[in-house]
Write a structure and sequence with these properties.
This protein has 351 residues and is an alpha/beta fold. It has two domains: 3-134 and 209-342, Glycoside hydrolase/deacetylase (TIM Barrel), CATH 3.20.20.370; 137-204, no CATH class. It is 47% helix and 16% strand. The protein has helices at 3-18, 20-23, 25-28, 58-71, 78-87, 104-116, 127-130, 137-147, 167-182, 187-200, 206-212, 216-223, 245-263, 282-290, 327-335, 337-342, and strands at residues 32-37, 39-40, 55-56, 74-75, 94-101, 121-125, 150-155, 158-163, 228-232, 269-271, 295-301, 315-319. Helix 8 (137-147) packs antiparallel against helix 9 (167-182), helix 8 (137-147) runs parallel beside helix 10 (187-200) and helix 13 (245-263) crosses helix 14 (282-290). The radius of gyration is 20 Å and the shape is globular.
């Protein structure tokens, strides 16, 4: 476990066992929360899983949903959240459930649970993934490191080699290369590096979409249920801050248009890919508003406060993280107290 995860786990434990998450919620929990998920699927035995934070098990997910349903908190759709925010209807605290990317396990494992407990939810679909032309570069990087004991690549203008035979070395190398890639100036530079690395070591980037993501037929099957909202998540899942104004507008417009053409309904809610402050900021928020989205969500951690009614293109979410799969952690996170501490007790983080 990383030092950062250990510190965060200790904070969750302290908030839970002290009861602070209960008595602080009226002060720090805002009017509601939007939960972020990616994968809901059975655990994998692999020891090297650097992207494990993006997945939770069906058992854990059901326990969280059951607890939320019994808590008395309103479990609502994004449309209902938008109504409450714009009309100032803050009488009852709410939770919205959202999934990013459009993975097949949402249909297979998460949907039956949400259907059983009658919980509305949103799936933000990256249209390129459904069209099988997307590049899940973070999974390609994991696969390259997983398959090899030594890899070489060109970095900072020179060839470099990395030994990664053991799990510890693989984890450290993934962390190093992932954040080095995230610091590349442009999205195309990042992707070209991963394409070349994947080609050199026999990793098929295109195969990840086919293996993991829903087809348009599967998305339509899901969308037929009134519990389900289909949101937009761009076409190519780029880090928007790394592309031009014109390209950002194209991604936000065309991703929505492709979904409308496939399903017959225009998405009104958006999730920014990656979604942290280095990926989406004021420029992206402004463009999303100009394009007429009702809401747009980030991955900036936080609960929803009344003041977010003036910042509906920059809504925070609370991640159900695969590194913290204990029901008590989910209770603390859903209360908003942990993210309030993370944000230095600032209700808004929209800059």
């Amino acid at each position: 476990m990383s030092a950062r995860n250990a510190i965060f786990r200790a904070a969750l434990e302290t908030l839970y066992f002290s009861g602070a998450h209960v008595w602080l919620r009226p002060l720090l929990g805002g009017v509601g929360a939007i939960l972020t998920l990616h994968h809901v699927r059975p655990p994998r035995p692999d020891r090297f899983q650097p992207n494990r934070l993006l997945e939770v098990t069906p058992r854990f997910f059901e326990r969280v949903v059951r607890r939320l349903r019994r808590s008395g908190t309103d479990l609502i759709s994004l449309d209902e959240m938008h109504r409450r925010m714009t009309e100032g209807d803050f009488a009852r605290r709410f939770v919205c459930v959202t999934f990013d990317d459009g993975y097949r396990d949402t249909l297979k494992f998460a949907y039956p649970v949400l259907k059983q407990y009658q919980v509305p939810f949103c799936v933000y679909v990256a249209s390129g993934f459904a069209d099988r032309v997307g590049e899940m570069w973070w999974l390609a990087l994991e696969a390259v490191i997983a398959k090899n004991a030594r890899i070489g690549m060109r970095m900072e203008g020179r060839d470099q080699w990395f030994d990664c035979e053991g799990v510890h070395e693989k984890r450290a190398l993934f962390e190093q290369l992932y954040w080095w890639l995230r610091r590349r100036k442009t999205e195309e530079e990042l992707r070209q590096i991963v394409r070349e690395l994947s080609a050199r070591y026999g990793v098929n980037i295109a195969a990840f979409c086919d293996e993991l993501c829903m087809t348009w037929q599967e998305i339509a099957e899901l969308a037929a249920d009134p519990l389900v909202t289909i949101g937009a998540h761009t076409v190519n899942h780029p880090i928007l801050a790394k592309i031009t104004d014109v390209a950002v507008r194209s991604e936000l417009e065309n991703g929505r248009a492709v979904i409308e053409a496939a399903l017959g309904k225009r998405p009104e809610h958006l999730a920014y890919p990656v979604g942290d402050p280095t990926s989406a900021g004021p420029r992206e928020f402004k463009i999303a508003a100009e394009l007429g989205y009702k809401t747009a969500v980030t991955t900036r951690p936080g609960a929803i406060f009344k003041a977010h009614a003036d910042h509906l293109m920059a809504l925070p979410r609370i991640s159900l993280n695969g590194e913290f799969q204990r029901p008590r952690y989910a209770r603390v996170l859903a209360s908003g107290t942990a993210t309030a501490l993370w944000n230095g007790f600032r209700p808004l983080n929209v800059g």
